[in-house]
């Protein structure tokens, strides 16, 4: 079973995504802010991290920088989810080290297809 960390401070969206991903057979941990996300990442291994750009405590960009500077997480697949969808924000996210970017609002089915594609890349 593939394991995903979802770090999203918007409760309704987080609940929707957790329900959808669990229904598809994924094992999901959910973080409500950047600090909680880092705590999960220090004590668990994941196949993918879904990060909100704007979260309390640490932003998604700050989390990416921390993950990429640590040998144990430098190769972890990361997708940034953000309402900040201008090209400069997308570029900043990718330069920081995210593997993928998805602008909010997005179709849950589109997100699911992207996640499945990411997780099947290494098969």
Automatic annotation (TrEMBL):
GO MF annotations in UniProt: DNA binding
One GO BP: phosphorelay signal transduction system
UniProtKB keywords: DNA-binding, Phosphoprotein, Transcription, Transcription regulation, Two-component regulatory system
PROSITE patterns for this protein: RESPONSE_REGULATORY (PS50110)
Modified residues (4-aspartylphosphate): 52
Cross-referenced SUPFAM superfamilies: CheY-like (SSF52172)
Top-level taxon of origin: Bacteria
InterPro entries reported for this sequence: Bact_response_regulator, CheY-like_superfamily, Sig_transdc_resp-reg_receiver
Domain annotation Response regulatory: ranges: 3-119
Record-given protein name: Response regulator
Organism: Peribacillus glennii
